[in-house]
């Protein structure tokens, strides 16, 4: 949960990007890192395997200064999408303040999206959080490809809570900051 440090005048929130393998979670963080000025981002820690899949997690700290001399720091994490990294996902999700679920829009990926969403629900329960109440944003990534799943079908199958959703092309930055802004608003209570 959020950590408030009055001495440093800083509040830290933890946000996890969750979704099936190769859906674009790391690509979201990489775009944020490459776009924001250096004073707003820390070091981007990426732990990939030889085939560029997240092995343990990715981590990117992002700072947003507020008007009252407070800083809001978001610790952005990705979780590995493969089922066999169960312990790693749970470790990252422990104490999370918000989740971005990144769905892969490619036409043949609906089963993986649904499986990943089911894993998210189980993992949150296992770390003492309730999927029904954790701040959540849906991102439908890879919208630029041929043969994508229609957004209304993704919403019907994945967005049972009716949370905000964004179409995205994370590689090009489309929808990346809209998604980040929406989850930031939710976890800070501004929305």
User: If you consult CATH, what is the topology?
Assistant: Rossmann fold
**Mean pLDDT figure:** 88
> Looking at this structure, what is the CATH superfamily?
P-loop containing nucleotide triphosphate hydrolases
Distance between the termini: 18 Å
Query: Which ranges are low-confidence, i.e. pLDDT below 50, for 5 or more consecutive residues?
Result: none
Number of strands: 8
Radius of gyration: 16 Å
Which structural category fits the helices and strands? alpha/beta
Number of helices: 5
Order of helices and strands: EEHEEEHEHEHEH
Just give the CATH class. Answer: Alpha Beta
Largest sheet: 8 strands, mixed
Strand content: 25-35%
Number of domains in the coordinates? 1
Multimeric organization: single chain
Overall CATH architecture: 3-Layer(aba) Sandwich
Helix content: 25-40%
* Molecular shape: globular
How would you sum up this structure in a few lines?
β7 (about 135-140), α4 and β8 (about 165) form a beta-alpha-beta unit. By secondary structure, this protein is of the alpha/beta class.
Description:
This protein is an alpha/beta fold and 191 residues long. It has one domain (3-188): P-loop containing nucleotide triphosphate hydrolases (Rossmann fold, 3-Layer(aba) Sandwich). Helices cover 30% and strands 27% of the residues. Strands 1, 2, 3, 4, 5, 6, 7 and 8 form an 8-stranded mixed beta sheet that branches. The mean pLDDT is 88.
């Amino acid at each position: 949960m959020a950590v408030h440090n009055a001495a440093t005048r800083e509040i830290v929130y933890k946000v996890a990007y969750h979704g099936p393998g190769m859906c674009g979670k790391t690509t979201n963080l990489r775009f944020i890192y490459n776009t924001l000025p250096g004073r707003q981002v820390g070091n981007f820690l990426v732990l990939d395997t030889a085939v560029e899949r997240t092995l343990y997690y990715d981590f990117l700290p992002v700072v947003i200064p507020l008007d009252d001399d407070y800083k809001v720091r978001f610790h952005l994490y990705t979780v590995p999408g493969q089922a066999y990294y169960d312990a790693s996902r749970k470790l990252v999700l422990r104490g999370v303040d918000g989740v971005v679920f990144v769905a892969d829009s490619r036409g043949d990926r609906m089963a993986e999206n649904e499986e990943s969403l089911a894993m998210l629900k189980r993992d949150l329960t296992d770390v003492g959080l309730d999927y029904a109440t954790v701040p959540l944003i849906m991102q439908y990534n890879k919208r630029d490809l041929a043969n994508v799943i229609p957004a209304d079908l993704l919403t019907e199958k994945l967005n049972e809570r009716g949370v905000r959703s964004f179409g995205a092309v994370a590689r090009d930055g489309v929808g990346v900051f809209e998604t980040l802004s929406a989850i930031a608003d939710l976890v800070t209570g501004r929305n």
